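Good morning C.,

I know you're traveling, so I'll keep this short. The sequence:
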Amino acid sequence: MPIINSNTLFHFTRNIKSINGIIRNGVRLSYCYEECTKDSGFAIPMICFCDIPLLRTLEHRRKYGNYMVGFDKEYLIQSNLLFLNPVHYLNSLFLRNIGDDFFATQLDLINHSFYNELNLYIKNKGYEPLLEKYGLEKLMLADEDLNYKKDQISMAVNKFRYSMAFSKLYASNTKGKKIINYDEREWRYISNLYSEDESFAPWVPQISEKEFNDSRKDLNSRLWNNSKAYMCINSNEICNAVKFIVVKNDRQIPSMIKFIRTSKKIFGTENLSSEHRDLLISRITSFELIEENF
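The tokens, ready to paste straight into the viewer:
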């Protein structure tokens, strides 16, 4: 019986240099633009995967490239419980943004909802005199209920933010052509919005596609200079995590074998044993071989 989705999450890239970089340093976050209205959207550092069965990836490869690393889906899920999720595709008008003003209003509600809700709770509890006397931080330290409420409100606001980040329009128009995004079966690994390093991978909540294209190179350049931008794998987990390394054609397999044997780092890990390298080499194949035999 044909499978509906794969037990592997595939990350596609366009050339041999890119896949070598992934194998050496790990998959890296990149800023991606997500359309929300005709003229506006948001930009967030993410890593994109799909779980389309490998034999049905031809159209996907035309768009994203003929080189791929496949990761065990359950491994990625368990090791990234906070920041990995399948994309939620939006078609209903209740869920889609119906104009720039509506999108701006939604962002404003999200950005102000934390303090609005917290202030409402403080007012209802009659804590305003105490707030004025001691300040919010001291008041929360002295009142467990208030501190608990603060955490609950924060979690709810984060849920709204990440729900937006894990969402995509069911269909979009590119150069006059309708694209069914739902066919991509996308999964996303999203950067931590609340990293202790506030300068690392900031989200850009409202930006036009032109503004994004103009600033994309600079955004990614600053992002890639930070080691936290790379999804690395521990040496004892690599062979369980990596299921496929696929190049475009058979001629590239020997050079990929040589690269894995000689690279100082493999998925961000130094001094990987020869046994682990041999196991990774056994995962190498080509799309040429797959198309001819399956």
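Safe travels,
E.
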